[in-house]
Design a protein that fits this description.
Number of domains of chain C: 2
Chains: A mainly alpha (about 220), B mainly alpha (about 220), C alpha/beta (about 240)
Strand order of the largest sheet of chain C: 6-7-8-3-9-10
Shape of chain A: globular
Shape of chain C: globular
Mean pLDDT of chain A: 86
Strand content of chain A: under 5%
Structural class of chain A: mainly alpha
CATH architecture of the largest domain in chain C: 3-Layer(aba) Sandwich
Number of strands of chain A: 0
Number of helices of chain C: 7
Helix content of chain A: over 70%
Number of strands of chain C: 10
Distance between the termini of chain C: 42 Å
Order of helices and strands of chain C: EEEHEEHEHHHEHEEEH
Strand content of chain C: 25-35%
Low-confidence stretches of chain A: 164-172
Largest sheet of chain C: 6 strands, mixed
Low-confidence stretches of chain C: none
Number of domains of chain A: 1
Radius of gyration of chain A: 19 Å
CATH topology of the largest domain in chain C: Rossmann fold
Radius of gyration of chain C: 18 Å
CATH superfamily of the largest domain in chain C: P-loop containing nucleotide triphosphate hydrolases
Oligomer: heterotrimer
C-alpha cells in the first residue's frame, strides 16, 4: 500500500512539474521565478491538511490510547512541519529576486512562520520526554492546542497587517485566477498531498519499528 | 458543590503559600522594574519614539512576567512531592486546573497593576478615559496567557530542561493574544472608542474560550503523570 | 463463593525505555491481610506500588483494587485507596492543620475542626498543629501523612517504607493502627527494607527480585534470621 502511494506520489510530482514549468504560462513581470509558486502554495495547503490529520489522530489517541493513533499524530505533525519549511524556503527564494528581500512581515509569511515555530516546539517537546507514553499524551495535547490555534494566528496576523477595517473573509479571494494556473496548482497540490501521505505512512512505520526495538 | 470547593481550595492553598514564602511575587515585581529600565535605556530619551512603542512594551512586560511566573505554577507541587497526591484525590481533575488558574490570575493581576502604575509614572502616560477599556483588554489578555500557561506549566514540570522548554512552547502559541492586546491597547491609548477594537476583543474572547476549553478537557491527561 | 481479593495483580509488566522493571508479577492481598513487599533497590517495589496506586500504567497485565481495574476504573479504585509514599505529600509552607484541611477538602469532605484535631492528637502532633511543616522532622512529616489516612477511611493501604524515620512510640502506634485496620477488613501492601519488628504486622512476605515475584510465603513461624536467609537466597541468584 505504502509503496503504491510512493509511486503515485512520484508520478504526481512529475505531472506537477510538467504543469508548473511547462504548461502554465510564463508570468509577465516576474518571469520564470514566479513558477516557484507551484511548489510554494500547495506546500502550505498540504501542511495544514496534515496538521488536521494530526489533530484528529491526537484526539483519537487521548480517547482510545491506541499507539497507532499516536504514531499517526506524531508522523503527521513532523511531515507538516517539513512542508511548512518547504513553503517558507520557497517563499524566501521567490521573494529575493521579486521583492529584493529574503523576508518580509507580510500576513501570509508571518502566520506560516508562527505556525512553523509552534510545531517545531512540538517536536522539541517530544524529543525532551523520555517516557514514551507520557510523550504521546503531552504531544497529543500540544498538537490539539497548536492546531486550534492556527485559525487564531491566521486572523490575528492578517488583521495586524491590514490597518483599520478588518476584512470579513478569510483573505481576499483571487477568484479571477486563469483556469490553467488554477489547474496547475491543483495538480501540484494533489501530487504533494500524495507525497505527504507517503511520508506520513513511512514515518509512522519507522516509529513503530523504533518502539519494537526498545520493547 | 465539591468541584467549586476543590478549585477554591487549590487557589487558597497557592495564595497562602505565596503569601508566606513571597518567592514569586517579589521576584516578578523586581523583574518588571528591571525590565522598565532596560526598555528606557534601549530606546533612549526620545519621548515620541517611546509613545509609539508603549503598548508593545507594556505587553512585552506582561508576557515576560507571565512566562516567569506561570512557569513556576506547579513548582510547589514538585518541590513538596504533592503531584501524585493530587492525582489520587477523587473527582474531576480539571478543578485543580481551574484553581491553579485562579491563583495565577490573582498573582498576575497584582503584578500587572503595579507595572501599569510604573509605566504611567515613568513614561508619563495619561490613561484617563481609556482606563476601563484598558482594564478589559488586560483582563482578556491575561486570562488567555494564564489559561495556556497553566496547561503548559503542568506539561513541562515533569520534563528535562523545563525552564527552556516552557517559554519555547508558550510564546508562539500566544502570538494571537499578543497581537490582539497590543493593537487594542494602542487604539485605546489613542483615545479611540472601544467599538473600534471590537474585532480584536472578539478575537481575544475566542482565544480565551478555546484555551480554557482545551485546558479543562485535557488537564486530566497531563496530571496523570 | 470466594471473594475477590482486595488487591489482585496478574502478569504485570512495566517497561521504562529499554529496561524491564517488572517482568510478569502476580500478587493477591485479601481482606484483613497485610503483605510485606521485600526486595533489593531497583527491584521494582515502588513501581509495583505505583501501578496498584493507579499512578502508573502497566505495559501489560492487570491490577485491580477492590475489583476495580486500576487503569480503566481508576477513579473508583482511588476512592478506596490510601497511599503513603516516600515523600510525605505535605506543603511545607502550610501548617499541619492547614495541610490536613487541604487534603480533606480535596477529598470532597468538609474540614471538620474536631476531626482534624483528633487526627493530629492520634499521631501526637496536636502541639504542632499551627506550626509550619517546614520546621518538622522527617518522622513528624511521616506521622502527618499517616494522620491523613485516619480521616479518609480507605479500604486498601499502600505504604512505601512506612516505619522509616519513626521513633519507638510512633512505631507502636502505627503497628496498632495497622492491626485495627486489618481487623476491620482492610488490606495492606507495604514495601519495606528492614526485617525487624515491623514485619510482625505482616501476614505474608513477598520477595520481588529481577522483576518477578521470587517468593510469596506466610510469615508465621519465621523469625528475623529466617527472613534474612530467605531474602538472601532469593535475591542473590538474580544479578
Amino acid at each position: 500500500m505504502t509503496t503504491l502511494l510512493g509511486w503515485l506520489a512520484g508520478l504526481g510530482l512529475v505531472a506537477g512539474l510538467v504543469m508548473g514549468f511547462g504548461v502554465a504560462p510564463r508570468e509577465v513581470t516576474q518571469g520564470n521565478v514566479q513558477r516557484i509558486m507551484y511548489l510554494h502554495v500547495p506546500a502550505v495547503w498540504v501542511a495544514y491538511l496534515t496538521f488536521t490529520v494530526g489533530f484528529a489522530a491526537s484526539i483519537a489517541y487521548l480517547a482510545g490510547r491506541r499507539p497507532g493513533a499516536d504514531r499517526l499524530a506524531h508522523a503527521a505533525c513532523e511531515v507538516g512541519t517539513v512542508f511548512l519549511g518547504v513553503n517558507i524556503a520557497t517563499g524566501a527564494i521567490w521573494g529575493k529576486p521579486t521583492w529584493g528581500t529574503w523576508w518580509t512581515w507580510d500576513a501570509r509569511l508571518t502566520s506560516v512562520a508562527v505556525v512553523f515555530v509552534m510545531f517545531l516546539a512540538y517536536l522539541l517537546l517530544r524529543g525532551a520526554i523520555e517516557d514514551h507514553e507520557r510523550g504521546a499524551r503531552y504531544g497529543a495535547v500540544l498538537s490539539i492546542v497548536a492546531a486550534l490555534n492556527i485559525p487564531l494566528v491566521h486572523f490575528s496576523v492578517y488583521w495586524w497587517r491590514t490597518l483599520h477595517q478588518p476584512p470579513s473573509l478569510l483573505k481576499p479571494g483571487s477568484s479571477t485566477m486563469p483556469r490553467v494556473i488554477l489547474t496547475a496548482l491543483l495538480v501540484n497540490f494533489a501530487a504533494q498531498a500524495l507525497l505527504g501521505a507517503y511520508f506520513v505512512a513511512r514515518r509512522a512505520r519507522l516509529l513503530a519499528a523504533e518502539e519494537e526495538a526498545l520493547a | 458543590m465539591t468541584y467549586a470547593r476543590r478549585a477554591l481550595t487549590v487557589a487558597w492553598k497557592d495564595l497562602v503559600v505565596e503569601r508566606r514564602s513571597k518567592e514569586t511575587l517579589n521576584a516578578l515585581l523586581f523583574f518588571s522594574l528591571a525590565l522598565l529600565f532596560v526598555f528606557q535605556f534601549a530606546l533612549g530619551p526620545d519621548r515620541e519614539r517611546l509613545a509609539a512603542v508603549l503598548p508593545g512594551l507594556l505587553w512585552l512586560g506582561f508576557i515576560l512576567s507571565g512566562v516567569l511566573g506561570l512557569g513556576r505554577a506547579f513548582l510547589v507541587e514538585r518541590e513538596n512531592d504533592c503531584w501524585e497526591a493530587l492525582l489520587l484525590t477523587p473527582g474531576d481533575k480539571s478543578a485543580i486546573y481551574l484553581g491553579k488558574l485562579a491563583g495565577s490570575l490573582v498573582l498576575m493581576a497584582v503584578v500587572e497593576t503595579l507595572v501599569l502604575a510604573l509605566f504611567v509614572l515613568f513614561f508619563n502616560v495619561d490613561l484617563g478615559p481609556a482606563l476601563p477599556g484598558l482594564a478589559l483588554v488586560i483582563g482578556l489578555g491575561t486570562v488567555g496567557i494564564a489559561a495556556v500557561g497553566t496547561l503548559f506549566a503542568a506539561m513541562t514540570t515533569q520534563v528535562r530542561a523545563r525552564e527552556l522548554l516552557f517559554p519555547v512552547l508558550l510564546l508562539p502559541v500566544l502570538v494571537p493574544v499578543l497581537l490582539g492586546t497590543v493593537k487594542a491597547t494602542e487604539a485605546l491609548l489613542l483615545r479611540e472608542p472601544l467599538a473600534a477594537v471590537a474585532h480584536w476583543l472578539k478575537l481575544l474572547v475566542a482565544a480565551d474560550v478555546v484555551y480554557l476549553a482545551i485546558g479543562l478537557l485535557t488537564f486530566d491527561f497531563i496530571l496523570e503523570g | 463463593m470466594v471473594a475477590v481479593p482486595l488487591i489482585r495483580v496478574i502478569g504485570l509488566v512495566r517497561v521504562f525505555g529499554a529496561q524491564r522493571v517488572l517482568d510478569g508479577v502476580d500478587l493477591d492481598v485479601g481482606a484483613g491481610e497485610a503483605v510485606a513487599l521485600l526486595g533489593p533497590n531497583g527491584a521494582g517495589k515502588t513501581t509495583l506500588l505505583k501501578i496498584v496506586a493507579t499512578l502508573l500504567r502497566p505495559t501489560r497485565g492487570t491490577a485491580t483494587v477492590g475489583g476495580h481495574d486500576c487503569v480503566r476504573q481508576a477513579e473508583a479504585a482511588r476512592a478506596i485507596l490510601g497511599v503513603v509514599a516516600h515523600g510525605a505529600h505535605v506543603y511545607e509552607d502550610l501548617t499541619a492543620h492547614e495541610n490536613l484541611a487541604f487534603w480533606l477538602r480535596m477529598g470532597g469532605h468538609a474540614a471538620d475542626r474536631d476531626a482534624l484535631a483528633g487526627a493530629l492528637a492520634d499521631v501526637d502532633l496536636e502541639r504542632h498543629a499551627d506550626a509550619r511543616v517546614r520546621t518538622f522532622s522527617a518522622g513528624m512529616r511521616r506521622r502527618l501523612a499517616l494522620a491523613r489516612l485516619t480521616l479518609t477511611h480507605p479500604r486498601v493501604l499502600l505504604l512505601d517504607e512506612p516505619f522509616a524515620g519513626l521513633d519507638q512510640r510512633a512505631r507502636k502506634w502505627l503497628e496498632g493502627r495497622l492491626e485495627t485496620f486489618k481487623a476491620g477488613g482492610g488490606a495492606v501492601l507495604m514495601a519495606t527494607h528492614s526485617f525487624g519488628r515491623e514485619l510482625g504486622v505482616a501476614d505474608r512476605l513477598a520477595i520481588l527480585a529481577g522483576g518477578r515475584m521470587a517468593l510469596d510465603t506466610p510469615r508465621a513461624g519465621l523469625d528475623p534470621q529466617d527472613v534474612q536467609r530467605l531474602y538472601v537466597a532469593h535475591t542473590e541468584d538474580v544479578s
